[in-house]
Design brief:
Number of strands: 13
Oligomer: single chain
Radius of gyration: 17 Å
Number of domains: 1
Shape: globular
Distance between the termini: 20 Å
Low-confidence stretches: 225-232
Mean pLDDT: 92
Largest sheet: 8 strands, mixed
Order of helices and strands: EHEEEEHEEEEEEEHHE
CATH architecture: Alpha-Beta Complex
Length: about 230
């Protein structure tokens, strides 16, 4: 699963998406967030008719049959392998695919009872987009989104058995849209990204608390971790 990410350089991330799409995007008045988690509102790039636009959506799709429930399930992720067939996701996968700007995402390595946080980024901290799908506002709910996950690459595999689908300048325009993708295209766009494009580093435990925000989320561990290894 991917349940946390950072968007602390919004202008850079949206600028990368704008260049990839060849379309201007208006940057919202949105404070940097270092620890975005489920139920948070965050910028998402989606199609509004023919044009792409930035909209603030809430993270967590709600299954249609649970929208009347006062405490419905919130779906943070959809597996790329089944997104086109499962009822909770298939309509969004066919006609509401979006780009979720990000500067990095977090995952936790389990070591006994400890969970050690790591930050995953593109090399040189290049901004990127995560592949998402979204649902329109309905039944008193705002617009919502979730992230697609795929098999881990060699950078991710030592920490977790899934990773978010990372889109590059070449794949962003192919993903976003409101028309169904051919099955082969869906598979091609949701493969794990080339591990040579990624890097990771350990973080301090401050980021593990989802209420914590600010640059301290990106601080390294306070003390060396015995037996730790480098993931890229």
């Amino acid at each position: 699963m991917c349940v946390r990410y950072t968007l602390h350089k919004t202008d850079a991330a949206l600028g990368a998406i704008s260049r990839a799409l060849g379309e201007p995007l208006e940057v919202p008045d949105w404070a940097p967030r270092y620890n975005i988690t489920l139920t948070d509102f965050a910028p998402v790039v989606a199609r509004s008719g023919a044009a792409a636009a930035v909209r603030l959506m809430r993270w967590g799709l709600v299954p249609e049959n649970e929208r009347a429930n006062p405490r419905p399930r919130l779906l943070a992720n959809a597996r790329a392998e089944t997104v086109a067939s499962l009822p909770a996701f298939r309509r969004a996968a066919a006609g509401r695919r979006c780009l979720v700007p990000a500067n990095g995402f977090y995952e936790w390595l389990s070591r006994g009872t400890a969970k050690l946080p790591y930050l995953f980024t593109l090399r040189g901290e290049e901004p990127f987009a995560l592949a998402g799908i979204w649902d329109p506002a309905s039944d008193g709910l705002p617009e919502t989104y979730c992230l697609l996950t795929t098999a881990p690459n060699e950078v991710m595999a030592p920490v977790h058995d899934r990773m978010p689908v990372i889109l590059t300048a070449e794949t962003m325009p192919r993903w976003i849209g409101d028309q169904p993708l051919a099955p082969g295209e869906l598979v091609a766009l949701t493969r794990p990204i080339d591990p040579g494009l990624m890097e990771s580093r350990p973080l301090g435990r401050y980021v593990s608390n989802s209420r914590n925000q600010g640059p301290a989320c990106l601080d390294g561990p306070d003390a060396p971790r015995e037996g730790e290894f480098n993931f890229g």
